[in-house]
Each structure stands twice: as C-alpha cells, then as structure tokens.
Fold:
Amino acid sequence: MRRVVGLVAGLLAMVVAFGQAPPSVGERAAEPSASAAAPGRPNVLFIMVDDMRDDDLRFMPQVRALIRDQGVRFRNSFSPYPLCCPARASVLSGRYTHNHGVYTVYEDYGFHAFDDRRTLATMLQDAGYANVYLGKYLNRYGFDPPPRAQQGNSLRYVPPGWDMWRASLDGGFAPGSPNAGSTYAYYDTTLSFNGKTFETLAGRYQTVAYGEIAGNIVRNRAPSPQPFLLYLSFTAPHSGGPKEDDDPRPTRLSNGELYDWKTPARPPSVWGSLDSVVLEAPGASWRDPDFSDKPGYLRVLPPLRPSDHRALLEVTRQRAEALKVVDQQVGNLMRTLADTGELDQTLVIFTSDNGYFLGEQRMRLGKVFPHEVSLRVPLLMRGPGIPAGETRTDPFTSVDFLPTIAAATGTTPDHRVDGVSMWRVARRGDVGWTRGILTETGALGHPPRNTNEAGEPLSSGGRRDIRFLLGIRTHRYLFVDVAHQRDELYDLRRDPREYRNLIDVPRYAAVRRSLRRALADIRACRGRACSTALPPRLQWPPA
Structure:
C-alpha cells in the first residue's frame, strides 16, 4: 500500500468531513491483466460529468479544493463536437468525429457506429492496467446492436479492454422486466455487471450510488500493486427523471410553440440549498443588440421572454444542486484515495463531455452548436509531477485525453490518434497556442453538404459531408462554415459573448481568408495533420 504524504492527507481531512465508510455493495476487485504494468506507473481516475459548463465549477468547492488547487486548471478546454455520444467517443478513441464516425446520439450514428476495438481501455490493458468503467457510456447502449453486429441488443455487450464493466443501460429490456432502468432515471438506474448479470439501483439516487460503488472499487484495488484506470461517468447535471414538484412548467414562446424545460432530478436534501447563490441564469444578461447578422439556424430562435428567464433560473438552480451532490461524492472518493494510500500515485482528471446553453444565443437549453458556452468544458488535473494551484491557457480538447494519459502512464497509443499529448504542458507550463481546434457539429436535421469531407466535389470520391457546422477555434477567433447559410466569425477578444458576426466586415477580410484556409487544412485531417500549425498571425503568442 502506497504511503500518503501527510500534508495532502491533512488537507483532505480539513476539506472533506470524515464519516462512516459507505456500505458494501458487493464489489470485487477487477481481475489482473495477463501482463504486468511497469512499477511506478500511476493509477488514473477519470471523472466525467454530463452537460456541465465551465462556469459551473463555482458550485463545486470540494472539486476545486482537492483537484484544481492541488493541480492545474486548463482554462481553454474544448469539446470539438459538444454532444454526449460524439464527445465521449472522442475521449475514448483520441479521434475527431469524422474519424470515429459517431455523429449523434441516435441509432446509425450513435453507440452502434463506434469502433471500440482500439481505445483508451485497450491501450492501458495492454500495458498491464486493470480497467474499470462505471456509469454512463455511449447513448443507446443496451438498446442497439453492438458495434459490428446487425441485430439484437447490447444488454450483455462489454467493449474490449475493460476488466470490470459497470456501465448504465439506456434500455433494451423487455417490457415489465424487473431489471428495466435507465441512465436518465436518477432513482431507477440499472448497471451491467460485466455483461453477465444486472444490478438495479432502484430507489437509490444515482450519483450517490456511483460514489459509493467507486469508493468500494478503490478500496478493493488498493492492496494490489497493479495500477488501475477507473473511468467514473456521472449523468448529472444532465436532465433526467422523475419529474419533481419544483420543476419549471412549460412556457409559450412568441412563435406559439410550447417549450418544455428539462431538469435533473435531485435528492430532497439539496432542494433550495443554492437559491441564495444562484440569483439568475447565466444567459439572463445575454442580450444581442442586433440578431440580424446571425445565420438562419440562429435567427429562427424566438427571443426570450420574462417567463423564459424565470424558468431558466429554476433550471440553473436544479443543475447546481445536482452538481452539489457530485461534488460531495468526488470529495468522498478523494478521501478514499487518501485513506487507502493511493492518492499520491493517482492521476485525477475531472471534466465534462460538453458545455451547455442557458439562454445564450437565444438557446434556452442545449448544446451541439460551437459557441463558447457549449464548446468550452471544465478540465482539472492533479497527480504525480503536476504542480499545485497553476493554470494553463494552451488549448486542450477531447481528442487529447488519450495521448495525454498515454504519456502520463508511459504507454503508447495502439492506433493513430488525432490529438496531442498535453502531459508536458500540465507539468511544466504553456508552450503556446499554435494549432486550430476543429469543430464539427449538427450532423442530422440539416441538409448535408454538396461536397465530400475534404470540401471537394462529390465526383472526387470520398464520403458525403453530413456536418452542418464546420469551424475552427483559435486563441482569438471562432470561424464557422455553415452549410447553405451565412458563415460566422467572432473576435472573442473584443466580443467574448459572440454578439457581432464579423463575416462581412471588410477589415476582417484577411483574417477570414486565413481562417478559411486553416479550416481547409484540418476539416478532413487524420493523425498528426490535425495539429498542423496555424498561420503565424493566428498563433499565440504571434510567431
């Protein structure tokens, strides 16, 4: 058992209240892999939440104190396709959406489309790690056939590389089955147990149950000298049932449509606990003085009314309360790492799959589009060799997690990845924003492009490009090529809330041309080509 530095243990004792250990839930240690990992390799605790905005960190004091303040915060962390399933596939594969093929949360382009034979899990398992997955996986897991299968469901499917598989099932059970549960039913979730049996969490609040299970996994793994990966995937603060008495009622929009507000269920113990902190929704102060310069997909959104702002406030409060419970469970888990002697040998990563709109751009709720609050996600990292209390401004994206973890664990990706390792940046500091971040969103619901993915005529061969919004994000600009509509260009240094679309402003013509060429370089990129250096004028600091 590894020793814990006394100062770290003391800090944990001050920040997290000690109490009784959570009850056993029948855990067992993951079976060791056939190969043995090299001594001294760190454990990896990867914590992902769902739909959390970067500014939601203010609701998570224990996460800030125990991860951010003891490690680094990446202030420019992005989800290139800010939607659950594509974003999670990028984390697991290290690839952009156009390379892993998961374009949406629905069948055909969701869970079933993901080639899971080479992932973060297979890489670490080959290196001798014991890998554990707990919580939300890819959308429609349970419902759809497994990858490479054409029929049946995935209720008993376990992706390669996982020694213990505890993913939540989105469905697939026969009507009336006692195992029926859902990832999005906070008090009625069903987990796979290695694809052999099912564990129902009915009656237990999902976030708390996940925290207790994760704690038991760490305790059972600690006596082994074999390092582990624990991928802990919370559903919160994503919307989910059951409906609650304080949920906002549907509101009537100015176009006559009825808008149904979605919220996460929370345990009664946190209801109203942040009302004095959350006084308005983040989008309450978002007021674009002239919306006429926006492309059609934004202009069709009705302006927000006072009833919308009241509902948004309640949604924001409920999301904050759901995150408060996550914060408590993460604090408990950090305490368990300390108690078992694993903390100083564990790389801890905390992030979200995507951001979330709360009124900005007239988007009442949602994600998908490449604007700041949707694209930007929190990212905190602490562990061996990472300094405490520092900030990084170099860009970090979903495709960078796999190569970064590879570098941290002394392993090598077993397939070509589009991301780059940010391990040196985490430990030693920024090196500069020299690459563009590709954004590729809105695959379904809009007419496809009349080109292949490289932007060439369809007669040139290749796949038809189904991406509605193709963009590039630099340190200062966001440029978006919108299929069949007006493009978008924002100067984020002067206009961080993206009010003014500069696409037709003459003085930005040279910048627009540079951004368009840079996007052309990476729109169909693979591997190292995805990190092609930007033109000097678009780099930071300027080359």
Remarks:
- The chain has twelve helices and 18 strands.
